[in-house]
Every structure is written in C-alpha cells, then in structure tokens.
Amino acid sequence: MKRNYVLVALCLSGKLYAQTTDSTSNRLEQVEIKAYFTKQPLLKLTSSAAVLSQQHLQSQQSPALVSVMNTVPGLRMEERSPGSYRLALRGSMLRSPFGVRNVKIYLDDFPLTDAGGNTYLNLIDPYTINQVNILKGPDGSIYGANAGGVISLYSKGYHTLTKPEVNLQLTGGSYGLFQQQLNAVLPINHTQQLAINQSWTRSDGYRQHSSLNKKNIQLNYNWQYAKHSELKFTGFYTDLGYQTPGGLTAAQMESDRRQSRPKAGPNPSAAEQKAAIYDKTFFGGLSNQTNISTKLTLFANVFGSSNQIKNPFITNYEKRDEKNLGTRLYLSYVDRISKNLKYELQFGLEAQKGWYDIDNYDNNQGNIGNPQAKDKLENSQQSFFARTQLAWLERLQVELSVGLNENKIAYQQRYPVAQMDKSHIDFGNTWMPRAAVSYQATATFALRASISKGFSAPTIAEVRSSDNIINNDLKPETGTNHEFGIRWHLWNRRVIFDASVYSYQMNDAIIRQVRETGAEYFQNAGKIDQKGIEAAILTYLMTPKSSGIIRSLQVGSNFSLNNYAFKNYKIGDKDYSGNKLTAVPKTVWVNTLNALFPYQIRLDLLSNLTAAIPLDDANTVYAKRYHLLQGKISWNKAIGQRYQLNFFVGADNLLNQKYSLGNDINAFGGRYFNPAPLRNYYGGMNFHF
C-alpha cells in the first residue's frame, strides 16, 4: 500500500522526530543525533542535547537564527541590530559584546571557532543550514576549549540525490528588508555531488544608522572515491557590512527609540563617526574519512580562514587582518566484547594556529586618521583527546573521556614603540575529563548523569580589546559541571518530556567592563555559581491525517530556570558577591504551536516570555521583561510532478512590545539599551524544482 510521509520537525530540549503515517501504522520515530563521533538515538544520549531541523529553522523568518535558537532551553541568542548577534549556551553574554565566545561551534565537522577563540556566526546564512546539533554543558574532553557547550551546523547538499534539486527563495519585509537565497544540489555522478548556496540580504534597519548588506556564497562537495572512503569540502566567502547604531540611555530610548547613539560630551555620535563593521571572509576545509575495516575508522581534515575586518568606532578606526589554519584527526575503533557488551575507543587531536594584525587609528568621521596603536598577535591551541564508551544490552551506556588543552599567545607591539622581540602568555596545560552514564530503564524512559570540566581561555579580542592595551593578567575560565536528566516518551510518543538539572561552579569568570571613553576591557571575577533547570514537553494533540479541518496539531513548552550568581567578586572597595549574574534572565518560557490545515496551509506560532535581565554587576539597572509573539502562515502548492511553490507571510512582535534585545553590559554613561523593532511584517515565496 502506498505510504505517505509527513515530516514534523520539532526541537524540544533536544529532540527531532519524524512522523510516518499510512493506513496501517501511526508511529513516531526518533531521529538520531551525531554526537561523540557516531550517530545515536537521543533517548540514549548521555548529554543534554537539542536538534533543530531545516524545517524548524524555516518555521520563522529566515534572515536570522535568533527566534528559532531561543526555542532551545539553556541557549540564548541576541540581536543588537541587523547583522550583530551574540550567543550564549548555559551562560551569559558577559564576554560577548558581539560575536560568540565560550561556546565551540563547528560547520560540517570543521571548527568555525577560530584559534583566537571567536566565532563569527553572522557570516553564515541560515538558509544554507540543514540541521543544527547542540550539546549543552562543558564538553572540553572531546571538542577542545569550551565552558558552555558545543554547536554543530550541518549544511545543505550532503544528502544524496539522483537528480538536480534547486530552491529559490525571495523575502521582503518591514524596514527595507530584502533577501534572495538560492540552493542548488547537483549530482555529478553516482560518487560525486556539488551543492551551491548563495544569498544576498539587505535591510535599512529599525533604528537610524543600522543598515545591513550581506553577500554570501558557499560550496559543498563530496566524493566517495573508494568503497569505504569519502572526501568532503566546505567553503564559503562572505562580504558583510552593517552599521552599528550604539547603545541608548533609558531616557533616550523613551524619547526616541529609533535614534542611534547621539553625541555625548567630547564623543561624536555613531552616525557622525560612521560606526560600522565590514568583514570580508574566506573559509575552507577539506576532510577525509576512511573505514579501514568494519571496526576501524580514520578521520582527518584541514581547514583555514582569512578575515579582513574594518571597524570604524566612536573613539577609533580599527583594521584587523586575521588568518587561521588548523587540523582535526582521530582514529575510532568499535567492537564487541560479547553479544551484550559493545565498546568504542577514539584517540585524536585538534590543533589551530592564528595570526592577527590589529591596527587602530583616529576615526575622522569614518576615515582613517593618525595611528593610535598597532600590534601583532599569534595564538596557538591544541587539544589531545581520548574517549571510551561501553554499551550493555543497548540499555546502559558509560562514557569516559579526557582532553589535554594547550593554549598560548605571542604578541609584539609595532606602534607607538616597536617591540624587537615577542612577548608570550602561556595559559598552561589543562586536563578536561568527562564521565557520563545513560540508562534506558524501559523502551520509553531513560536517565542520564554526567560530571565534566569546563575550560575557556581568554580570546584574542579579550587579551587585546578595544582599549588597545595587551592584558596579560587575564586567566582562563575553569569549572566543574554536575548534571542529571531524564527523557520520557508517553502514549506512543504523543507526549515527550525532557528535563535536566545542573550545577556549574566557575572560577575566574571573564567579565566585560567599559571605560569612560567607551572602550571595553575584560577582567576576571572570582567565582560564579551557575545552577539551572531545563524542562520541555511536547504534545501531539492531533497526529497527521488526510482529512478534517485540522490535519495535524502539536504544542510545545520549554522552560529554563537560571539561578546564576556571583559567588566571590570584588573590584576595589566594591563587593558584588551574592548579586545576580549580569545579562542572565532568571526565567525563559517558550511555547510553540504548529498546525497543518487542508491545501497544505501551515501555521507556526512562537511565544517567548523572558524575565527581567540585570545589565550591570551591581544589579542597579535591569532590562524589562518582555513577551515576544511571532507567527508565520505558509501555503505549499505542487505544480505538476516536478515543481512546488511555497508562499508565506509572517509577523514579529505581534504584541508590539517595547523591549531591548542585545543590551550593552556594564555600559558607561547608562547607554545600556539597543531597542528592538516594534510590530513588523515579512512575506515571500519559495520555488522548488
């Protein structure tokens, strides 16, 4: 009998499921996640995790990942203005004035996080991503330095096709938004396949002086050149430019929330100084996987990037030339001790080297003036790792892993005084162990527990921040995470529950501070107590069917409780011990509703309730709580056997909330706020053939 497949992709605290229906069955199958070298069911995974499918990524507006990323408990993504994003996983934005730090991010198994510790996530176009895998909690034993977790992005084009497939999407919306996105997967022959992803995004922005112009092209190529060997290439070029409107005081935001940062004292306005970031980046990586035997696998890759960055700011004009090279390789052996006992062994290395030329000049209204400072820095880091896993009766899984991380920085001043020899900062050798266990008590119920060490060295942007001073006093963040969780599927998986509780005790947390000039610097903050609860429930109120007004209906609810506080933090005569951790909301509650109607009409609703957020270490200023409601309606129409059209319209901030997303932390002069857009709209079409 002919089967009809309806994919319902949902991320609820780490789950992606596919529903398969026909006249004889109605079951919900769990999709596997690639984690710790192999694919495995999420139910049995020893970590708290999440999976976002491509369908889920497209359930809201496509120019940014912000709303869909924030559906994952424990993960927070912010947007200061179009193109300027921050992301934190089980932590805060203390270290991230822009960009991503303290979280390790991979693109198709290549580290997107560079040798200096930064990840330019805004270089990636969301439309190129097919799936996102998220591992929550420190995982330095396998993935190198991180204290928050690991995010893996997988591109479109690696699924095997026999015929070419092309998708063209056009989107337009409020505040001058226009986006064109193209994805083409081209099978060359039965062993080779090429994928091309191209996009152009522009926006005038909600605030004055916040326009965006981004051009991206990405190539993915895979070649199975032997029966047990495959070669893959991922490469992209991004030309990104966006204006930075700057933070406002509460009074300025109340007076005119769309204005950019005005003139203050001796400092000109953001518009006068043409404050912006321009980033032209090449990234490429080549990997090879060979199954030497049915038990032994060898994986090796090489990757590199080149970033040319210009950043006119209020007080200076910065130019950065950043180059990175790296490799990741490992051996994996899988075998059985007995019929009921299976084991895995992996040994490997990940190493990166970065070269950074950073020059600062006077900013004469967007033009380069006299030099202020010039420095040359080099960063080298390597992580040696080993892991073993025992699986008994497909029920009990025990993992033991350990990593040895080495991180060093060399620097040399070139201006105003030329330094003849290099100076060095050595963050030492750090062991990062992890022990974890998962027990599947029944076919639908599993418990998990883990203990792991986190480690995150200061990034190049923190050692040499915008105050143009080399800070060789910064120490790495370290800490130990204890975690326990459960996964439970009820009533034939029509109700899915996932929860975890954790305690992460961090030492020497790195915190952003701002000088009177507006330049930032970083310092360590003693100890931080991070305790949290994450819970999610997904209910299929109506499983897919072929008749009726409502063809399928599912609702989900995700909740995060972040009980984060400074444990021991003193600056001079100021004692912040016991205060709430800056930039972390106490609670985040996200609800989703997905409904399918006749004629392939789909409704996606998302509700995000975020509690008040402390914006300074003294807890004297808070960003107000907000309730963000978003919705999207799409209609899919088949044209013949080959073509499909999809039309969609959507709205953001339906409740017209006045809120700030992407606040400036510990801002001097009270300029904390980056107002987010009020109610706004978008619409577009997708053509598939």
TrEMBL record:
InterPro entries: Beta-barrel_TonB, Beta-barrel_TonB_sf, Plug_dom, Plug_dom_sf, TonB-dep_rcpt-like. Its main location: membrane. Keywords: Cell outer membrane, Membrane, Receptor, TonB box, Transmembrane, Transmembrane beta strand, Transport. It is found in: Cell outer membrane. Residues 250-271 are annotated as: Disordered. Residues 43-149 form the TonB-dependent receptor plug domain. One of its GO terms (biological process) is siderophore transmembrane transport. Residues 175-654 form the TonB-dependent receptor-like beta-barrel domain. GO terms for molecular function: siderophore uptake transmembrane transporter activity. GO terms for cellular component: cell outer membrane. It is a multi-pass membrane protein. It comes from the Bacteria. PROSITE patterns: TONB_DEPENDENT_REC_3. PANTHER family: TONB-DEPENDENT OUTER MEMBRANE RECEPTOR (PTHR30069), TONB-DEPENDENT RECEPTOR YNCD-RELATED (PTHR30069:SF28). Belongs to the TonB-dependent receptor family. This is TonB-dependent receptor. The lineage of its organism: Bacteria, Pseudomonadati, Bacteroidota, Sphingobacteriia, Sphingobacteriales.
